[in-house]
Design a protein that fits this description.
135 residues; mainly alpha; disordered C terminus
């Protein structure tokens, strides 16, 4: 929190890292983390290849699904009453139950874009920022 006003990008990275730690804290069934497309792909590998079951298990074991763990942990930790009040200047800027998971995933994607490309994003997250989605 101390660095939020002076270095919003570092504060943001710390926040997302804290979410990743929470996401990895509890053991999760990998099948809960895989989307339907990946489940279908693994089933096709298991059924259609020699030693397919073994290969599918190997692939499954290597899928860490960090973003999905992150989003699942945060959506499960936030209770419905959290959304009852908000401090955003406009209601459309406030977090709500219907879009919370999508926004959490987008926050993670923004962090990844910065970490993997170095693209500056401080103006999007700085306190008092009035950036619009079409900028």
């Amino acid at each position: 929190m101390r660095s939020c006003e002076t270095d919003p990008e570092v504060a943001y990275l710390h926040l997302i890292t804290a979410g990743e730690i929470l996401g990895n804290y509890s053991e999760r069934n990998l099948d809960d983390l895989l989307d339907e497309q990946m489940k279908g792909t693994l089933q096709a590998v298991a059924a259609g290849m020699p030693k397919g079951e073994k290969i599918a298990r190997s692939i499954r074991g290597r899928l860490r699904q960090i973003k999905r763990r992150f989003a699942m942990a945060l959506t499960q930790l936030v209770w419905a009453g959290f959304f009852a009040n908000f401090e955003a200047s406009e209601s459309f800027l406030a977090l709500n139950e219907e879009t919370f998971k999508q926004r959490i995933e987008t926050a993670y994607d923004l962090r990844n874009k910065f970490v993997h490309t170095g693209i500056y994003f401080g103006t999007w997250i700085a306190p008092g920022s009035r950036m619009k989605a079409d900028n």
